[in-house]
């Protein structure tokens, strides 16, 4: 039987690490330290739903949304950030962190099932690196850049490290905009925000502009300012299913847009954007490169808020 999931506040990430003998208490109701708690009536009214949508499993921040469904081979994992350790099924409350782009060092140790002939075996794994979190009031994008990786006693056996595609978006989560609201909206909305990536030369940030025509239910946009890619064009697509990187608990309810992307310097493939907030106040997602390109399947994360 799965042990009961626990909610563990991530407030310690922005403070001095706490002792494991004196852990942070779980958040209850509307926490006073939450930056967005007084931002708007809509945010306060929907705070419990926002909290639930941003309380992600620790294992999902490193392994992605498919992790934690007990069919992908993970047997054990601990995630240590700033000296505080979470078990694989502990839930991390992202709302305790401020808005904007944050970087935190992480160390994930685990055991996985290796299917092998003639006998399966349990192997030890370890991954260390930098976790990037881009938070908006109703959404969050989480990515990782591993700098050390060990599998069954071997260092980087699959050659994952030190490449343009080592940085990967792991989660796009938040309070989903309901289908009824999206159907009821009309006119055009412009979203502006940030994009971020790390192609091995340090974190690069850019500017996102994305427009949705709620009459035609289509959207398109661009990202500028990331030197490694040059301008990224997010071609027009129609509102439909959500980004595949949403956690399992909300993936079926989140609406979004997916379409092709182009860049000036690298070979892009597709982008995925999800719509968040009770009135479609935000978008968040990522761009992916072509796995057939010399850089591989690189990622750029992004998020934006609706402009007045």
TrEMBL record:
Species per Swiss-Prot/TrEMBL record: Aggregatibacter segnis
PROSITE patterns: PROKAR_LIPOPROTEIN
Keyword Iron: no
Protein known as: Factor H binding protein-like C-terminal domain-containing protein
Ranges of residues in domain Factor H binding protein-like C-terminal: 186-286
Signal peptide: 1-19
Bilayer-spanning residue ranges: none
Assigned keywords, A-Z: Signal
UniProt KW Signal keyword: yes
